[in-house]
């Protein structure tokens, strides 16, 4: 069933920014504390999966070999077999046509196994790294789900709700909704803090099937009765680990309390810490779980990692060499090499941007204190390659969708190994190769053991100094063998096999 007979076809995106939404305590002391009456709910359909004959014919041995090859790990009762092609997913023609039009050749591992799980209407935990194709893993089943529900009536809220930690990720999801929901005229909108409420309220009151929201701003909208969650039967928690890192757990709990308990819930995360396990246990019922790769902290293997042990005073001169080398390579190849540089503080971001511009590099800075107009301009300049070097704080580490980032430079190391993996995940996306170069100083000594584990898992060179730091700081090195360090044109560098 498609919604081609609808007389409207539009997608809405408001513009503005707040990485945390508008999530003050006042919102949580609102009417959201009163739980709706779920005693007399209309039934709804959520199982749409039809196993393709080709899938059904495959033996268990063949399926296990495929999962092993694709590094797919599953748990749950009655897990469906993965699909090898888009046609095998048994999507309706209006969904399949959009997928084929996009030029994809085959499903990614998370899509291959996740689509049958989601289409069966079961709750789902998906653990996969950034750039794995998880957005379409939940979005295409969501479109099928929407088209099987009654049309929205005046005053109805959305059918699908996707919660995301940042404005950047929310906008990225909404763009995919607009693209793949076009053929069935599904409307979507983005709700996040830091932007004018007027356009967002207008979208909500007009009626949209999909709402993508940061938790704080959504609570504002619910509290002011600009929308409601009575029709939500498909809930997505995207980048759940990051939402918890940002302190959104109270907001998430308040929002979920307003949604019918027999909904379908899909939780997605790059990591699987105890905090995420706890909310999964609270919000999901008898879920399937699919993990791509290991649940241990690990980096994308398409990224060549170079960790350079260096003195603080030597970081800037060394950065000039690293960036200069990359810009020279780009010029020789007549190509644009986008480079994302991370600084730990807003002041550090501004200082580094100013110094690089003074030294002739086409660099711009991005952090939360800049105006929305300036943020949008910086991102546009970076994306179109006019200024291919962007210095950013961690606010851009997750949810920032910029294609073809050639290199990530950690001018300042982050405070946690998880953030290191998230940062360098901006490169090496969608099967492309990338380089991550990181400056590691004495101040980062406590991270040494974890960084060694990440490097070893990805078979990357490990500078000998990291082992010394790990021993001094009490890092756990059990079972870790020291890998011979590579060479570069600076001292103390763990060289990369490919650049």
From TrEMBL:
Q: Which SUPFAM superfamilies match?
A: P-loop containing nucleoside triphosphate hydrolases
Pfam families, per this entry? DEAD, Helicase_C
Describe the location of the Helicase ATP-binding domain by residue ranges: 115-290
- This protein's UniProt keywords: ATP-binding, Helicase, Hydrolase, Nucleotide-binding
- By its UniProt entry, which InterPro entries does this protein fall under? DEAD/DEAH_box_helicase_dom, Helicase_ATP-bd, Helicase_C-like, P-loop_NTPase, RNA-helicase_DEAD-box_CS, RNA_helicase_DEAD_Q_motif
Domain Helicase C-terminal residues, every copy: 302-470
Quote the biased-composition stretches of kind Gly residues, using this chain's numbering.
488-499
Using the UniProt record, name the top-level EC class of this enzyme in a single word.
hydrolase
Q: Per its UniProt entry, which superkingdom is the organism in? A: Eukaryota
Return the Polar residues bias intervals.
8-25
A GO molecular function annotation here is: RNA helicase activity
Which sequence ranges are marked TM in the entry? Answer: none
- Where the record annotates domain DEAD-box RNA helicase Q, the positions are 84-112
What's its EC? 3.6.4.13
Record-linked Gene3D superfamilies: P-loop containing nucleotide triphosphate hydrolases
Query: Motif Q motif: where?
Result: 84-112
Region Disordered, as annotated, extends over 1-31, 480-499
Q: Which family does it belong to?
A: Belongs to the DEAD box helicase family.
Listed name of the protein:
RNA helicase
Q: Which organism is it from?
A: Chlamydomonas eustigma
